[in-house]
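Sequence, please.
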């Protein structure tokens, strides 16, 4: 594959990427700031700091870094065993590393603070594949593919999903993607508008019809699971609370396109349910049973989609009653993942996890975008957002030379991985990063964010199949999740239309 220098990075301007890599991402401090990287095993792009214990009698700590490939060992002395590897970070070659930290008193070793093994990841070097087509063209081509797909065309003459498309077992995620994708396609292709909106209506009507009934503990929420395929088995009575807000936003899109108030009312009913069930701490349980009110998991939801719903109802439609509720939810996010960096992967096919064991970057990037778009609300929002984006890149972006333990055969790079329990190159993960960098570029003007968005977006165009499909996996084309491709397509369109970032 041919590569090109997208634009020579200005490493001597406002942002020096090489120097910045020595700055740790939210380094832990015992008793004050949690160490989020306890279970991070697949690599670091930015200098890490580890939770290593103090040694009785030690007056300082000797850090020794030994690259596995035979490069010379590197060493420095620091005051604490949890100091970041900043002094030597940019001298460590890409590859596997052994870190040893010893407590010393003068020249003598008084104890071992700890040993860590990790992979030193490659930094962004300003290079990426050549774009196959323009970003808007890429996204539009995928939405055309969605519109023409048999399992979507099925909605034209049916009021229920195509039983042959197995992923409809996740109705909120997949049927929601049909709804959002078709409404968006109706805007960019007037010739397809009428049929696209008919199909979108049928999809929305089905979701409304199968939602929790009036009188439930959580009325009007659309189901997360349907049928017995995959993770839906034995979970049809469970709703994962990260999805209904997204569906309500789709209803509002459809209302804007059709002026049919039934869809606005459906969205407002979902928002009202969230309003009535918000916990005192400001969020909601991650999983509930609407029929009985049972809380299925003790984990809390990261409620960024509910916040966006509340904000849209307030700003676009003047429904001010949701403003204070959005503020409570934002306060929860600030007090929890923004403080702890426990960016848990919250997806319907993965069980809620213990803190830090399954970090992800999807909702982290969503929160970062929200913070940047609302910088006027809090002077700390921008710095928080940029640190979250650095975390996401550090843990989940691969610019080149992937960790061999990930078995990266046939990987297209650059790419972005999904979550600790599924470290695979996924189009939606690339989309998360592209979108976050685009918003960061808009609000800061720092060229490095535009360059990174371009490099990853160019790779998205390379991944696209001749029929317009954007395959979920960037190392094989045998499995395509409709939601991943639809939202990736919309991100590519926004990249050009809204943020003015061109291929």
């Amino acid at each position: 594959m041919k590569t090109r220098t997208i634009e020579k990075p200005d490493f001597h301007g406002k942002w020096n990427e090489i120097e910045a890599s020595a700055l740790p991402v939210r380094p832990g401090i015992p008793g004050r700031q949690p160490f989020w990287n306890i279970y991070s095993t697949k690599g670091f792009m930015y200098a890490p700091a580890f939770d290593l214990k103090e040694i009785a009698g030690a007056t300082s700590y000797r850090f020794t870094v030994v690259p596995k490939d035979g490069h010379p060992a590197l060493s420095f002395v620091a005051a604490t065993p949890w100091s970041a590897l900043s002094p030597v970070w940019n001298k460590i070659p890409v590859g596997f590393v052994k870190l040893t930290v010893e407590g010393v008193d003068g020249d003598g070793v008084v104890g071992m603070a700890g040993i860590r093994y990790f992979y030193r990841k490659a930094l962004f070097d300003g290079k990426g594949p050549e774009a196959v087509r323009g970003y808007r063209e890429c996204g539009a081509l995928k939405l055309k593919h969605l519109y023409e797909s048999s399992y979507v065309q099925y909605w034209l003459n049916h009021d229920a999903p195509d039983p042959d498309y197995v992923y409809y077992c996740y109705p909120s995620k997949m049927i929601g993607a049909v709804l959002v994708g078709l409404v968006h396609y109706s805007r960019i292709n007037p010739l397809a508008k009428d049929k696209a909106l008919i199909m979108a209506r049928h999809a929305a009507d089905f979701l409304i019809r199968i939602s929790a009934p009036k009188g439930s503990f959580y009325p009007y929420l659309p189901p997360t699971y349907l049928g017995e395929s995959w993770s839906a088995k034995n979970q049809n009575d469970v709703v994962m609370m990260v999805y209904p807000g997204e569906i309500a936003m789709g209803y509002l899109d459809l209302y804007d396109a059709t002026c049919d108030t039934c869809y606005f009312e459906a969205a407002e009913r979902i928002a009202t349910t969230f309003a009535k069930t918000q916990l005192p701490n400001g969020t909601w349980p991650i999983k509930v049973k609407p029929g009985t009110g049972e809380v299925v998991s003790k984990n809390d939801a990261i409620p960024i989609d509910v916040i966006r719903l509340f904000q849209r109802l307030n700003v676009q439609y003047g429904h001010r009653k949701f403003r204070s509720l959005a503020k409570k939810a934002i306060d929860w996010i600030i007090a929890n993942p923004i403080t702890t960096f426990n960016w848990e992967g919250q997806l319907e096919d993965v069980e809620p996890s213990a803190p830090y064991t399954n970090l992800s970057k999807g909702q982290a990037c969503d929160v970062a975008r929200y913070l940047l778009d609302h910088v006027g609300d809090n002077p700390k929002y921008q710095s928080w957002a940029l640190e979250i984006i650095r975390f996401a890149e550090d843990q989940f972006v691969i610019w080149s030379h992937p960790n061999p333990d990930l078995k990266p055969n046939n990987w297209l790079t650059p790419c972005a991985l999904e979550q600790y329990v599924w470290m695979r190159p996924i189009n939606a993960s690339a989309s998360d990063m592209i979108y976050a960098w685009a918003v960061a570029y808009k609000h800061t003007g720092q060229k490095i964010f535009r360059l990174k968005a371009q490099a990853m977006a160019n790779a998205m165009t390379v991944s696209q199949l001749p029929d317009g499909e954007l395959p979920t996996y960037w190392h094989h084309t045998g499995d395509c999740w409709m939601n991943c491709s639809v939202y990736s397509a919309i991100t590519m369109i926004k990249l050009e239309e809204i943020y003015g970032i061109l291929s």
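Residues 3-120 form a domain with the Immunoglobulin-like fold (CATH 2.60.40).
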